[in-house]
Design brief:
Strand order of the largest sheet: 1-2-3-4-6-5
Shape: globular
Structural class: alpha+beta
Number of helices: 8
Distance between the termini: 76 Å
Largest sheet: 6 strands, antiparallel
Order of helices and strands: EEEEHEEHEEHHHHHEEEEEEEH
């Protein structure tokens, strides 16, 4: 008679499945939900996101669908549609698991260099620029939503969790990320810190994130991505036969039990930002400079938000222009210029026109109802009006006050 522990008597627990994917170990929990490693029907590596019930799928679904269509190299590739199972929604992401930047901030090793920090920040800014040109904003950018991929480059994930995501909000979040990485990885390099401070100032100016990338370009050339590759691989190395990744001081401890055995209550999602490494009582001069630049950018956004709140609740407030942004979108046959005019929320009329390398036209008007603080205006370029070289187009606000924003549509619409 065979013993209870003999191979013939052992119970083999099959991995739980989500659609055609076998669910593996739990990786982390974020505001978007809980991430798991997974194996696809063709034995390919993948990831599964158990979407948090608080996430609005009416925002999430169109966002991930557009990201899938864009197929950008700096985005963890989503694979819609969502999979509904046991009353919960799941999202598949292609590619193997990758550690979040939050898990690398406080570590030790050769990867903690100014060059690597600049390279990752440039990756993030480049991806944000591309999505902003396509009319998408992230809305939840922080060290948990930036992954370090197999090639040592940054991958953005956890899109579509905020119904109020904006490009200026992404820029402010990027500035916070700059300060976080500079403090964690560059505590002894004042020249690098000066470059990070310049990048924050440039990103908050007319050039936006493109200016921030330019300020980091020289430093990013010194990156040694091989050290990031090695560190990312070590972070995800199995701790033992169970194949569960090692726990990090700030990481969620993986759970090995099947999802069916978990309690039906919704898991709590931590909104606490990762702690900043390298803090010291006596802050060196570079940290003061970087902090000052970050404060300018952050307070500028906060001041606009506060001002809008006050003016919306004040009667007879005159319409004022807070900012003007301009992007270009390409749909295969037409180039659409999209302008966003941010106001103080008061009702009134905005008079504007298009100038630069586009056919001349009359002054136009757009009505601000007072219900929202943003007005969208568009100009569609087709046929001979399509950009061919490197044109500059300007959205000129004429009334109630002079403001303008310019863009190079050939960057998004070149053909």
């Amino acid at each position: 008679m065979s013993s209870p522990n003999s191979p013939s008597q052992r119970l083999v627990r099959e991995a739980p499945k989500v659609g055609d994917y076998r669910r593996g170990a739990r990786l982390r929990t974020t505001p978007a939900g809980t991430w798991f490693s997974a194996t696809g029907p063709d034995e390919e590596s993948a990831c599964l996101l158990l979407i948090h019930p608080g996430v609005d799928t009416k925002v999430l679904v169109p966002t991930v669908e557009q990201l899938a269509a864009l197929d950008l190299p700096g985005v963890l590739p989503p694979r819609p549609p969502l999979i509904e199972q046991a009353g919960r929604n799941w999202l598949v992401a292609a590619g193997p698991p990758a550690p979040p930047l939050a898990d690398l901030l406080g570590g030790t090793g050769a990867y903690r260099t100014p060059g690597n920090a600049a390279a990752l920040l440039s990756d993030v800014a480049t991806t944000l620029l591309a999505t902003h040109h396509a009319g998408l904003a992230h809305g939840g950018l922080d060290a948990r939503s930036v992954l370090v991929g197999q090639d040592g480059a940054a991958l953005l994930t956890d899109w579509g969790t905020s119904p109020t995501a904006t490009a200026p909000g992404d820029m402010r979040s990027w500035a916070v990320l700059v300060e976080l990485l500079a403090e964690a990885w560059c505590t002894e390099d004042e020249l690098a810190a000066a470059a990070f401070a310049s990048a924050v100032r440039a990103a908050g100016g007319p050039a936006g994130l493109a200016g921030g990338i330019d300020e980091l370009r020289a430093l990013a050339r010194t990156a040694e991505r091989a050290t990031l590759v090695e560190t990312a691989r070590e972070q995800l190395a199995p701790a033992g036969p169970g194949g569960v990744p090692p726990a990090h001081p700030r990481a969620i401890v993986p759970a090995a039990e099947p999802l069916a055995e978990e309690p039906p209550t919704t898991p709590a999602v931590s909104t606490e930002q990762p702690s900043r490494a390298g803090s010291r009582p006596d802050a060196p001069r570079w940290r003061v400079v970087l902090l000052a630049a970050l404060i300018v950018v952050t307070l500028a956004g906060a001041a606009v938000d506060l001002y809008l709140f006050v003016t919306r609740h004040t009667e007879a407030t005159a319409l004022k222009i807070q900012s003007v942004s301009l992007w270009a979108q390409w749909d295969g046959s037409t180039c659409t210029l999209l302008g966003v005019i941010t106001t103080n929320g008061a009702p009134g009329t905005v008079t504007y026109g298009w100038t630069g390398d586009v056919p001349a036209g009359p002054a136009l008007t757009a009505r601000a109802t007072g219900e929202h603080n943003q007005i969208e205006v568009t100009r569609v370029l087709t046929g001979s009006a399509l950009p061919t070289a490197d044109p500059l187009v300007t959205l000129q606000i004429l009334r109630p006050e002079l403001r303008q924003a310019s863009a190079h549509p050939a960057l998004a619409c070149g053909h």
